[in-house]
From TrEMBL:
The gene is smpB. NCBIfam families: PRK05422.1, smpB. PROSITE patterns: SSRP (PS01317). The keyword Cytoplasm applies. It is found in: Cytoplasm. CDD domains: SmpB (cd09294). GO terms for biological process: trans-translation; trans-translation-dependent protein tagging. One of its GO terms (cellular component) is cytosol. Residues 133-155 are annotated as: Disordered. This is SsrA-binding protein. GO terms for molecular function: RNA binding. InterPro entries: SmpB, SsrA-bd_prot, SsrA-bd_prot_CS. It comes from Neobacillus cucumis. Keywords: Cytoplasm, RNA-binding.
C-alpha cells in the first residue's frame, strides 16, 4: 500500500492552509492501552499538533485523543506526548531539514493501515498572509471553472 492510504480517522486541514508541504513521511505511533480504541472511534484531534526531533527520536506534541468511555482507571492523558516510529536515516534527514529556517514537522493525517495506526508527517514551510490569500484565490478560480464546466455539461 502506498503511504497515506488507509481508513482516514483524522485530517489536519489547517496545515494545508498555513504551510507549504514540501515532503511527506509515513510514521507509526506508540500508543497506550485504550488510545487505539478511541482513535478507531474517531475521537482524535490533530489541529494544534506538531512534531519535533528530540534526542534522536521523533516526538508528537499536542495531539488530543479523548479518553475511552469504557476505559475506567486505565485511561490515558489526552494530550500526552507520543513517540513516532521512523527509520534512523529519516530522522536524521528530518533533523537536518528542520534546522533550516522556516521548516516544521506537521501531522497531516491519522489513518489505519493493515490494523496499525499511522501518521502522515509533512515537512512544511510556513506561508505568509499574501500566500494564503493567493491560494484562496486559486481555489476559488478552480471552483468557478468546475462550476462553469458542469453547467455547460447540463445543456
Amino acid at each position: 500500500m502506498p503511504k497515506g492510504v488507509g481508513k482516514t480517522v483524522a485530517q489536519n486541514k489547517k496545515a494545508y492552509h498555513d504551510y507549504f508541504i514540501e515532503e511527506t513521511y509515513e510514521a507509526g505511533i506508540v500508543l497506550q492501552g485504550t488510545e487505539i480504541k478511541s482513535i478507531r472511534a474517531g475521537k482524535v484531534n490533530l489541529k494544534d499538533a506538531y512534531a519535533r526531533i528530540q534526542n534522536g527520536e521523533a516526538i508528537l506534541f499536542g495531539m488530543h485523543v479523548s479518553p475511552y468511555e469504557q476505559g475506567n482507571i486505565f485511561n490515558h492523558d489526552p494530550l500526552r506526548t507520543r513517540k513516532l516510529l521512523l527509520h534512523k536515516r529519516e530522522i536524521s534527514k528530518l533533523l537536518g531539514e528542520t534546522k533550516e529556517a522556516g521548516y516544521a514537522l506537521v501531522p497531516l493525517k491519522l489513518y489505519l493501515k493493515n490494523g496499525f495506526c499511522k501518521v502522515l508527517i509533512g515537512l512544511a514551510k510556513g506561508k505568509k498572509n499574501y500566500d494564503k490569500r493567493e491560494s484562496l484565490k486559486q481555489k476559488e478560480a478552480k471552483r468557478e471553472i468546475e462550476r462553469a464546466f458542469r453547467d455547460r455539461q447540463k445543456m
